[in-house]
């Protein structure tokens, strides 16, 4: 059986766009002599659809698109995902089985654990068997494949997924597919979404494994591709490449930036403030790689807290990247505004007032420029600073989306080295300079915060590994440091909840859906 694996980039709710993308893939599959073409879970609607999944007009359009797609499915079998209504009420995620222009049946998803849209979906029946070209095929939607099912009677198992990216996810997925194929003594074909949607990134990385658990096809990560696999001749193995963590994170962020702008703000330019620091430098480099230099505008906003090196580094980076650099001085307006506010309220903590006010003023001017010229403001704050509250609310928390908001400071430096691996884009002095953010001013009682690498290690154990304070101390960290970082996370919740959406690339991003703790 010759199978076409269609790994495509859909747009949520754009039925015409998705429909014709699917039809084009079916035409290509027929041209190449495929007997079956498989698409991802909810390919017709795009993901994540959230509350749209319970709206009648949304479901009606999905089913109408399915009917129109079926008209092009002559002489080929098709498996395509969409949400449908249950007869008993509710919405289920389903795989439509199409043969010779007829919609033969629906295979509905049973397992909703971990599904970002679980609140809007009901459980279906689970995996089922179909026959294609004389071969018995098991069809599983999403996590149904992970359950302890008896697939031993299947020649091939097709898994239709909507699996989001996070660090380490691709290699774990390959391992699971390999083990399942070997245990079931069957070919396994997995097809995934690829693209950025909302704050999520779908990495693609669709794959086919033979009954020996060996990879026979690996589709690109972070890119569209249609691949053809013959299940009756699956002895030719392909080597699974080493998954470089930093390269994959870079690919995910680049894809997220491109799709965020193209899908949400087509025709507009991204705008970012260049401070001369590592965060804004890395974010700007990713934006340029994703969108092209002509679609990125950089702002330089010198103030009394800026130094000559910061300005020089920002200008140097803008030249290296080839982006337009606009200068909006803050000094005069800052001084006049600060004198006014101090006269009105006084300044019991003048230093903190000055820092916070300068950052809020910078964001106000940043947003004014973006509104004037129709630019999209991009935030470049990192996860470390957000976790410990080293950000000013309504100041450096501003922006439409946080490109680096799910990366620890140490991850940002790793990305900078990756960006510089082929040529120096980010200047060496930017890489070596001490952080100039509010992190250096933040204190807990009498004690200064520990270095970034220590903070990041503690945060990783607290957030990603769910370790207790005692476990982290037993691992060799100073008890006072652990207590302080843990306390700062709780103190930062109000800022975390009001931060802009962030591109999620870890298993524990800092947003309300994950850090679901009460305020106060």
SSE topology:
Elements: E1 2-7, H1 15-31, E2 36-38, H2 56-70, E3 77-85, E4 91-99, E5 102-108, E6 128-132, E7 135-141, E8 156-160, H3 169-184, E9 187-191, E10 194-197, E11 200-203, E12 207-209, E13 215-218, E14 225-230, H4 245-264, E15 270-273, H5 278-291, E16 296-300, H6 308-321, E17 324-327, H7 331-345, H8 350-373, E18 376-379, H9 383-388, E19 401-402, H10 409-419, H11 428-432, E20 443-444, E21 447-448, H12 452-463, H13 469-474, H14 479-491, H15 493-498
Parallel strand pairs: 1-2, 2-3, 7-8, 8-9, 15-16, 15-18, 16-17, 18-19
Antiparallel strand pairs: 1-14, 3-4, 4-5, 6-7, 9-12, 10-11, 12-13, 20-21
Give short descriptive properties of this protein:
520 residues; alpha/beta; Nitrilase/N-carbamoyl-D-aminoacid amidohydrolase; Rossmann fold; 2 domains; 6-stranded mixed beta sheet; 21 strands
Entry summary:
This protein has about 525 residues and is of the alpha/beta class.
E-strand count? 21
Helix content: 25-40%
The CATH superfamily of the largest domain is known as Carbon-nitrogen hydrolase
CATH arch. level architecture of the largest domain = 4-Layer Sandwich
What is the tally of helical segments?
A: 15
Determine and state the CATH class of the largest domain: Alpha Beta
Examine the coordinates and then state which fold CATH places here, giving the name of the CATH topology of the largest domain.
Nitrilase/N-carbamoyl-D-aminoacid amidohydrolase
